[in-house]
């Protein structure tokens, strides 16, 4: 990743939704000299945390009273259930609750979104100018939240991440070991990935940009046909390559481009998921 320094004036930041990616982002920001607050329903306090923990529930406005004034927000929560009501409560209502609870309006708000806002695109390249057409409720809710953010005066930037992998995110490797994975062979269905450390670095990077774009696609440099990726990982694991079968349900095929992110100066530590996954197995 290209080394950067904090954007002028963004001295105090709030990471709302301090789960895995949130805490990785908070650590990067603290190491760069920001004063960081981390908001979570149940803080996981550890000795030497370089941020200040705050307890609060984005779905409960009363729990957000007394938040500090901050210059910028990274909004990175996770619903506790995978259904439309839970997504809406966190991403749409929760974002609004947080902004209304802050004593001053943040000058930049970075929203963790998903490539789920895009529909089926086949083999064509997908970037920030591709029209969203979310096939599932998750993408539909995230797109609604993005649009609310864009219409608000809080410096909104949405980052549409591809599939995250990295330490603690080894479900694919587990499925391959168990022989439960299948792939659509020879049909150019793409796997789009980004290492979780690179995802955190993207969020920190966006805060350094004087004039960011309203949307970025967060993906590595090498979208791969899904059979190419799965076969490589099976070989690394020393297990049989997966059988032919349907692609991931509700996702559709798309080939994501990170050209805009690269033009902004960002570089992935793990530009190819084959290398990133291999590092997890060392």
Could you explain how this protein is built, in words?
With 282 residues, the protein is α/β, with parallel strands linked by helices. The protein has a single domain (12-280), classed as 3-Layer(aba) Sandwich (Rossmann fold). The protein has eight helices and 15 strands. The strands form five sheets. Strands 3-2-1-4-5-7-12 form a seven-stranded parallel β-sheet, with helices on both faces. The chain has a two-stranded parallel ribbon with strand order 6-15. A two-stranded parallel ribbon has the order 8-11.
Oligomer: single chain
Q: How do the strands of the widest beta sheet line up side by side?
A: 3-2-1-4-5-7-12
Give the overall pLDDT as a whole number.
Answer: 92
Euclidean distance between termini CA atoms: 22 Å
Q: Structural class of the secondary elements?
A: alpha/beta
Tell how many strands the DSSP assignment holds.
15
Number of domains: 1
Low-pLDDT parts are: 1-7
Number of DSSP helices? 8
CATH topology: Rossmann fold
Portion in beta strands? 15-25%
- Rg is 19 Å
Query: What is the element string, with H for helices and E for strands?
Result: EHEEEHEEHEEHEEEHEEHEEHH
Q: Based on the structure given, which CATH architecture is correct?
A: 3-Layer(aba) Sandwich
CATH superfamily placement:
NAD(P)-binding Rossmann-like Domain
Shape: globular
**Assigned CATH class:** Alpha Beta
Helix content: 25-40%
